[in-house]
Each structure stands twice: as C-alpha cells, then as structure tokens.
Amino acid sequence: MKNAMIYIHGKGGTAAEAAHYQPLFAHSDVIGFDYKAQTPWEAKAEFSQFFDAVQENHETVSIIASSIGAFFALNGFLDKPVKSAHFISPVVNMEQLIADMMEWANVTEEELRVRREIKTALGETLSWNYLCYVREHPITWQVPTRILYGEKDHLTAYETMLAFAKKTGAEITVMDGGEHWFHTGEQMAFLDRWIRQVDKI
C-alpha cells in the first residue's frame, strides 16, 4: 500500500490545492480534505473520522496543513498515528491569537464573557465559548513536525512559534520577508524547496 499525505487548507482555501503538493510527495497519495469544521470541537470529530477512512487504505498517514487548518489538525489528529507533519504558517496558540484579536478590537475579556460573541471590524467573530475551550484543552503534540514560518507573519509572533517548537520538538524554517499567506511566486518557490529539503520524515 502507498503512503498518504492529507492536505488541510487554511481559511479561504480549498481541498483542490492538494494538487500542487502531489509532485512534491511523489511516493504518497496527496489527499485534499474538504472539511466543514469551524471550531476545534467540530474538528475533533470530523478530522478523526477522515483520518480513519484514509488509514484503511494506506500504510502510513502524514499531514501537510496551513494556518487554521494546522490548528484543527492539532486538535483533530491528537490521538491518531500521524507519521509526520508539515505545517505552513500554523496557528499553534489559539488562546494567544484570540487575546491579540481582542486587543486589536479593543474588547476586554469581561465584555466578551458578558456578550458571548462579538463581531470585529476585521470580519472575525470573537467567541467566549471558543476562548474557554482552547484554555480547557491545551494542545499536546508529539508528532515529528516541520514548520515553515514567514518573517512577517501578522497572526503569530515568532516567539509564540518558537515556544511551540521547543515544547513539541518541531523544527522551524523562517523565510525572510515571508508572510502568513504563502502565495507569491517567490514564496511558493521557497515553500516547494522547503518541502523537498525536509521530506525525509
């Protein structure tokens, strides 16, 4: 049986993006995951079922995930035998990101607790239930992991990424001038080289 590589897109992405990665993982079936989950508790059930279905027909299962997709993978695949993980601009500390978004929107924790949900000018909705969930379910990740991080990532500070890496043993590659969303020709070329260099786990 072949190995499998599950591709998990970020916000606004699609499972069809998996086609870009197939040539980079020539010895694996790259399978795009068209997930519906919007919260980590939804991802826990949906991702688990998808993993089991893929595992039935493959010898090993690895993952490549971007941004919020990586965060959902950290929740949904927590107890699964994931062989390895490639994370692109992953959200690794949602509690910190929510705190940052509250600061950007000038929303206090007490205000969020009382109102339960607050839509921000950035188009994101802050949720008290979401914040409570991530506090009550800290991530414990033990999968061999490589991280690609853009120097100018506006969602996750390098210190936050470094703390996650030290806690989990993940390796970080930083692209100078890179952004959270890898999409330009230069950025995608860097991403492709990064995968070819680290596709050894």
Could you characterize the architecture of this molecule?
- There is one protein chain.
- The protein has 201 residues and is of the alpha/beta class.
- It contains 8 helices and 8 strands.
- The protein has a 6-stranded parallel β-sheet, with helices on both faces. Strands 5-6 form a two-stranded antiparallel ribbon.
- The radius of gyration is 17 Å and the shape is globular.
Highlighted features:
201 residues, single chain, alpha/beta, globular, 8 strands
Question: What are the SSEs and their pairings?
Answer:
Layout: E1 3-8, H1 18-21, E2 28-32, H2 40-55, E3 61-66, H3 68-76, E4 85-88, H4 94-104, H5 109-115, E5 117-119, E6 125-127, H6 128-136, E7 145-150, H7 158-168, E8 171-175, H8 185-198
Parallel strand pairs: 1-2, 1-3, 3-4, 4-7, 7-8
Antiparallel strand pairs: 5-6
Helix pairs in contact: 2-3
Proportion of residues in β-strands? 15-25%
**Structural class computed from helices and strand pairing:** alpha/beta
Low-confidence stretches: none
What order do the strands of the largest sheet run in, or round the barrel if closed? 2-1-3-4-7-8
Determine the mean pLDDT: 95
What share of the residues lie within helices? Answer: 40-55%
